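Hey L., structure's done. Input below.
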Amino acid sequence: MNKKFNLGSVILSVICVVFVAEAAAPVAAIGNSQFFWWLFMIIAFLLPYGLISSELGTTYQGDGGLYDWVHQAFPGTRWGARASWWYWLNFPLWMASLAVMCPDLITIATGIEIGIIPSALIQLAFVWIVTLIAFYPVCDNIVILNVSAIIKVVLALLVGGMGLYFGLKNGFVNDMSAGSFLPSFNLDSLSYISVIIFNMLGFEVVCTFSEDMRDPKKQIPQAIVIGGLAIAAIYLVGGLGIGAAIPTSEISVDSGLIDAVMLMSGTETGIFISLVALLFLVTLFGNMISWSMGVNSTAAYAADHGDMPKFFTKRWSKNDMPIGSALMNGIVASGIVLLGVIVNIVAPDSQLFWSFFALNLVLLLMSYIPIFPAFLKLRKSDPDAERPVKVPGGPIMLKIMAYVPIALIVISIFFTAFPLSFDAATLSTVLPITIGAIISVVLGEILIIARERKAN
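Output:
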């Protein structure tokens, strides 16, 4: 296979994978304190996570991604299996959450109201288009990834620029006093902090593209540094735009970015709004396609080592792509979409996007916890490995860089997956996430035990 990724394409791939345009609204719902949390998380999480991913990704190259790192660090334990299970399961949940957004975006773009059945068909079409595209190598989809990354940047800068113009012309709709930028510790704000960490994840996905890079040992760290800084700046600009135009209490976690563009442009229809909606729709495909490559490779690699169901080992003889994982993504995501249709019929006002999205991010965050102790363990147990990129610092500094991100992940999971009050509104929103997370973990443990017994 020809290696087609130059540095520019790798950087755009990082932006396509890591920058999540649909997550801008939930973070903006925090208010101006989001900027404090962004800066804090960049220093406390993004920096150590990026450095550690660069070292592990250039030292242990291959298709296994985070599973490979955890498996090598803790052989003979269940941690590799757990990480791969949580990492894979988050993806069909995420894909279903984005599928929920597609009919609304098409309605905004065309002005045509879409009924329940056509809406379900559109969502299923989204799922299976992504699934089938994942049958082909990432280098064959490089144009999709690059175009999606560019569109994401354009949309974020558009919202940021329009927001500043709107605020200067009409006045900022939210309190812009210095005190409003201080960190907020109310329960509503803290429940969205996990989204900020989620918005920084994905560097290990790009590491699984190493076979399609010209010089991965140089390109991976360069792309992580340049792409990471660019992504942080883009998020801050986009968040400022949404915060300038929409009162915090009225920000929709489902469609905040589009709402902001409508409000700032003064219209809910027209060619411009339709174009923004269609471009946003393209970014959803780009997100899923880029992540599917890394998730499928990781799941197949884990299955090859007996840590995922055997079906995930299936590969297409045409190009050796892991179609077992891709097909299972489509099947599970389709089931979730159909479940969502039923829920929407029973409770039309339910926030399906946030429910699916929150469960997906809880599982994804859980899968990252073993990475950091794996990094410390591999540094100690494999000291002679060639490390093209090496995280600087002595033993104490390395432990701080590993344990602080773990603590932030655990805290984020707690505030997202567990009800912090017991009023009806909170329970109806959070309790499904709690139950879904527990079921997902228990199911994973059952599958792991079953495979162990079968192997023995």
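The longest helix spans residues 271-304. The two ends are 38 Å apart (CA to CA).

-- N.
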